[in-house]
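Supplementary Methods S3. Complex input for the shikimate-3-phosphate-bound model.
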Amino acid sequence: MTIETRSLSDSEIRALATRIDRPVVLVGMMGVGKSTIGRKLAQLLDVPFADADEEIEEAAQLSVAEIFEKFGEAYFRDGERRVIARLLDGGPSVLATGGGAFVQPDTRELILQRGIAVWLDSDVQTLVERVARRDTRPLLRGGDPKEIVGRLKAEREGAYAEAPIKVMSNTGPHGDTVNRILQELAAWL
Ligand code: S3P
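Predicted complex, serialized as structure tokens:
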């Protein structure tokens, strides 16, 4: 059975945008499409978009992989929390976070207090297919992506489930996922 996604009209999207008073924060596993979907969502809502991983790279002048390599994961998580705290202060926006951000209790608390968290979820097979397109993720190095993604997803789901909104992002076009997010936001706000 296919569940139809009705597209919101331009005026419905404009009306929704006026009700969004905080950053919409996309959380969920690596490979789910947070950055691509986040950019499209921000464009439709006509608000700024920020990618937390890119902002961390900019602040550190190093790639995420280099930060993990040189300083370790705990250092990365600390910088991630500080960067996300700053981005949450900037008014309405769409913010894509790295897959581990919302799993960190302090970062999750900040996002839940100051943003509208949307958990983007996919099945493991789809995530593995999507992460295979890039080899920049330090947590996937030197292991079997299916095993690692499956294990991290199982470990992290309890944290992701604290987001007030959940939207599935399986194999269909990203535009459908964006529409579902808009509908869920409209229903939730
Ligand atoms: C991570 C996901 C990555 C990045 C870092 C750690 C994780 O972001 O923040 O490699 O812990 O799942 P994406 O979710 O954008 O791949």
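The two ends are 29 Å apart (CA to CA). Residues 30, 34, 53, 64, 98-100, 137-139 surround shikimate-3-phosphate (CB under 6 Å).
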